[in-house]
Hints:
- By secondary structure, the protein is mainly beta.
- Helices cover 0% and strands 54% of the residues.
- The strands form eight sheets. It has a nine-stranded antiparallel beta sheet, with no helix packed on it. Strands 11-18-17-13-14 form a five-stranded mixed beta sheet, with no helix packed on it.
- It is elongated and about 130 Å long.
- The two termini are 50 Å apart.
- Residues 1-24 have low confidence and may be disordered.
Amino acid sequence: MGRRWTIVWFALFFLFSFSATAFATVNRISGNGYIFPETLTYKAIFSMDVSKDGANPPSGLVKYYYSRTRMSMVSTAITNLTSTGVGTSADISGNCTVNNIAGYTFSATVTNGRPDSFRISIYKSDGSRYYSAGPKNLSGGDLVLTDIIPPTIAITSPPDLLTLGSSPIRVSGTIDDPTSTLTVNGSPVTGSNGTFSADGITLNEGMNTIIARATDPANNISTASINISLDSTPPHVSITSPPEGYVTTASPITVTGIINDIVRGTVNENQGRVLVNGIEAVVDNRTFIVENLPLNPGANTLRAVGSDQVGNVATASVTVNLDLSAQARINLYSGDNQRGFIGTPISEPFVVYLNNENGAPVSGRTVTFRVIESNGSLDGGERAIAVTSSSNGLASANFTLGTWSGSGNNKVEAKAVGFTGSVIFTASGIRKPPAAIYVQTS
């Protein structure tokens, strides 16, 4: 090689285990230099770029050339890297070849000072020293020990995707580098013993993104974020069936309705609760249902109390009448409160029974079945059909569920002219299982 100066690049990957009390350390050693071990005639030349960014054990390449002995050392593996801090010194060791012969090891110390300095020792396979130089100050070049790995920050409380009912809140977390400066949503925060807490973080109604930011002395930045919802608004609750003033000739009845609230997606049982006259409703996809709610003869108030997951409450009510007097009636016979996959026929028809004032069946009378909620359909894909009662006073209609899911979200009303009341049939649509799941990458 003669007096040719060799440009040396060195890459090291090192697994760095953080601790709550660790201070900022060297994550990068870069630069090159010239040293004069003995005379101005002979030169030793090196350069390096050392980074701690995850590999364990460290790996990379080091070259060192001494012109007097024409010795060329090339590392084959880096086994250790330690430092005393940013801008100070670092120790490096590993395996190497000398003039392309394997089985050697080396250790080096570099100092980022005034002036910079470098020391190296090379050992044979039996552990005896083969060569050493330094420590000597650099006669040229420059060494820099810096920090390029950002701190690790995490928000531990509140958990992500939580819905809260009040503001402001406290945000807490962990930080592995106590020399970092911290902010939460732009406000300065002081850390202690690897943790931090920020009080008075205000939320707006709806979804809020909370960002914690850590900046170390080398200006490496890390962030952590969570999304928190503020819900200080009561849910919207309404009873959709039976309607206000509804007259029925039988008890118990089915009550259905809607509960809406500010949530991600739609309101389900873990996001909203409804009680109707004290009876727990089943909630699914913004709808609720209570089956077999008993009525007293005469006027009855049906009161739905809806609450969201943070305790906001809203109410709705309707008045219905139970008429048990002796008169011609239309009665629910069978088929109510069925469940099935959306867009499919229910297993049993809706059936009503007509009787006269003496309770005897009435035949040959027209019963109208009409879809009053959902996009479902009756026999033949119709929204309304007329059916003649049989000799035993029965009239029936087949029904295909609509195309969206919910609790009691399909309704068909049956009426007959000259007969008291009406019958409201209720059915619930169930989501179909997916036909396939696809993984999409962008």
